[in-house]
Write a structure and sequence with these properties.
This protein is mainly α. Helices cover 81% and strands 0% of the residues.
């Protein structure tokens, strides 16, 4: 890669790391916050609803704005806004209303990253699937780091300290953007329709697929940490027999979740290689199809078998993302690349945030296992939608 491409990936990879770190700090704190605030699990989960909703639905206006003003100033706004809101959350962990408000602010500003950062990668990196894979790996490292770091900080000092750390990390990103020498590629003007003629229909089908994927992703990532904590008692007892001192169930579950997300990072790399070498449409289909049995199995398993099924599910659920992002770039107009990614994330994270409400409702009515049965049927609908997309398109030009 050229030095310009490496500079772009340096800032966008850290931005992607922090984007997911911002969103995945809350799930490991669900049980500690429920005990601290005197709420049940469903009520505590719903404190994050506006955060996840704004993270998604703000992506389109952020994408439109990025196409006008450029990615670098928008990335700086992302780090500044998310950092200040995280500091606010650290001061209000004992007030459900104010905590929910500052969480919503984190989601609002973190929503800048995907249209700004992925659009910058799509415009500035030649080997697109591979660039998306590297970017995706750092997103997965954020997913992996958030549970274990949050669990450890909560174990030592509580939820307020976790959000204090989050604020400082985001403000560190602002410092990185201030001193980085990112050269933005010139934004395309007037060439939107030539390379995407006749692909409006396929792009709409892809949006439906990504919306279903967003429901699966958000539902899984919000519920897996507390689900692992509740469903792995024998594994916890085994760990305690080898490790000195008192190991909390929350810390063990967050450690397992981090390990599972590291497995997902390998999936991102494999997905990028598959998308770079083969037709990304069929790779996109295959990864989701392979994840289908694993998510159904998660509804009925516990302890080590549950951990294995979770690792398989997230390996393929996360591994498909470089191919999905490549398809967005190839089925959308170059002049509106940031807007295209904004549209994607309105559906994946905006509509996907509804799964937070759904998970709370299902947990209260039928238990946590029912969440994964429903996510299995969502994945089945997604696989069928991808087949329909393949039938309506030819192999995208490289």
């Amino acid at each position: 890669m050229q030095s310009r491409e490496r500079s772009i990936l340096a800032v966008t990879c850290f931005g992607h790391f922090m984007s997911h770190f911002n969103m995945l700090m809350f799930p490991p704190l669900v049980l500690p916050l429920a005990a601290r605030l005197g709420l049940d699990l469903g009520q505590t989960l719903e404190l994050s609803f506006w955060m996840y909703l704004l993270f998604g639905i703000s992506a389109l206006p952020w994408g439109l704005l990025t196409d006008r003003v450029g990615a670098k100033p928008m990335m700086m706004l992302y780090f500044l806004g998310a950092g200040l809101c995280a500091l606010g959350a650290s001061l209000t962990v004992d007030s459900p209303g104010l905590l929910s408000l500052f969480l919503a602010g984190i989601g609002l500003f973190a929503g800048i990253y995907h249209p700004a950062g992925l659009g910058l990668v799509a415009r500035g990196v030649k080997r697109l699937s591979l660039g998306m894979a590297y970017n995706g790996i750092f997103g997965n490292l954020g997913l992996a780091a958030a549970p274990i770091i949050t669990g450890f900080i909560n174990w030592l000092w509580g939820p307020a300290a976790a959000y204090l750390l989050l604020g400082l990390l985001n403000l560190g990103g602002l410092a990185l953007m201030t001193f980085s020498k990112v050269e933005e590629p010139p934004r395309a003007q007037g060439e939107a329709d030539r390379s995407t003629a006749g692909l409006v229909g396929p792009f709409l089908i892809l949006l439906v697929a990504m919306m279903l994927g967003g429901l699966a992703y958000r539902g899984a990532t919000v519920t897996i940490p507390p689900y692992l904590e509740l469903k792995t008692p024998e594994l916890l007892a085994w760990f305690r027999s080898f490790l000195p001192g008192s190991l909390s169930g929350n810390l063990m579950a967050t450690g397992i979740m981090s390990a599972v997300f590291l497995v997902g990072a390998l999936g991102q790399y494999l997905g990028g290689r598959v998308g770079d070498r083969f037709d990304p449409r069929w790779g996109y289909f295959a990864f989701h199809a392979i994840s289908l049995p694993a998510v159904f199995a998660m509804a009925h398993l516990s302890d080590l078998p549950l951990v294995v099924a979770t690792a398989v599910y997230l390996f393929f659920l996360l591994g498909m993302q470089p191919m999905e992002n490549t398809l967005v770039a190839r089925l959308s107009p170059p002049a509106f690349r940031h807007t295209a990614y904004g549209t994607k994330f309105v559906l994946t994270f905006g509509v996907g945030s509804l799964s937070v409400k759904l998970a709370g409702w299902l947990q209260q009515g039928w238990g946590f296992g029912s969440v994964f049965t429903v996510l299995g049927f969502v994945t089945l609908a997604l696989v069928l939608t991808i087949l329909f997309l393949i039938s309506r398109t030819s192999r995208p030009a490289r």
